[in-house]
Amino acid sequence: PSTCNRPFFDSLSETQVPYSLVQSGARWSTTGFCFHTIMMLQLCCGHESLSRCWNERCEPLFLSLCAGGTCVVNPTDLFCSVPGRLSLLSSTSKYKVTIAEVKRRLSPPECLNASLLGGILRRAKSKNGGRCLREKLDRLGLNLPAGRRKAANVTLLTSLVEGEALHLARDFGYTCETEFPSKAVGEHLARQHSEPKETSARKKMVLATKQICKEFQDLLSQDRSPLGSSRPTPILDLDIQRHLTHFSLITHGFGTPAVCAALSTFQTVLSEMLNYLDKNSSGKTSGAGDQQINNSSEKTQLRKTAEPQSKDGKTEKTE
Hints:
The protein is mostly helical. The protein has helices spanning 6-10, 19-24, 28-31, 33-45, 50-65, 99-106, 114-120, 129-139, 162-179, 182-191, 196-221, 238-251, 255-318; strands spanning 66-67, 70-71, 78-83, 94-98. Among the domains are: 78-85 and 92-153, no CATH class; 162-281, no CATH class. A hairpin with a 2-residue loop joins strand 1 and strand 2 (70-71). Residues 281-319 are annotated as: Disordered.
């Protein structure tokens, strides 16, 4: 075709240019994949093994990808790499964005437009960034019409790719586990109701709360929302799974791990409350037992001292 790199192909012999390139009818200007594949083969294999490498490895892939100017792609393939927004300048991280993740951003519930998607993928400030993004998405079979309006409210989580959102959730969980004052908070709450009459009822309430919280944690642990390059098989009923998936899509994967971290911290606080109530109740019972023992010992001593006095009185009378 007129848009291909003619000097490069003129330098190759007839046996080095695969005939299937012409037969497939693929357009170089719309796929872009073809020319880069040939260039990579030339650099890696050399001219003499180019035809063999093409026929054995790349021709089946190329023919399956190129069909009418669009590509049949694997959703787990890499779309681009994006620098993190929350990293410090000294430790900037890059996160991989898959085609499946881009498709989730274009689909409900968010339905992002070209401006917002370009901002997430850091293409907003580049020259012709929006047009190039639409063309690339069109080649992958993803439609991003001009003038499209977003369907969901924009939050700070909207600007994060899923990799960075998961990283933020992991750091949040680690900070809750290591830095939250669970022991101090639990003991403070337990001291508010440490009267002997309330201790037993309070312990029952805390145990019931822990059970409900555990059931909630078990439910969230079975969430199988698509994330990154994974699309796990659902375990829960679809009626509840679709709501959890909606929450995960809106928060870009941050929501469920963050809620799980908060619930785990709450469970630790409840455990500290139980420990304080157990120690407090055992201390009071032991104190009451010691007091009873002291009272009984005092009574026995008084009884012993009273016996000789009574005997002396009797002897005096007899005399």
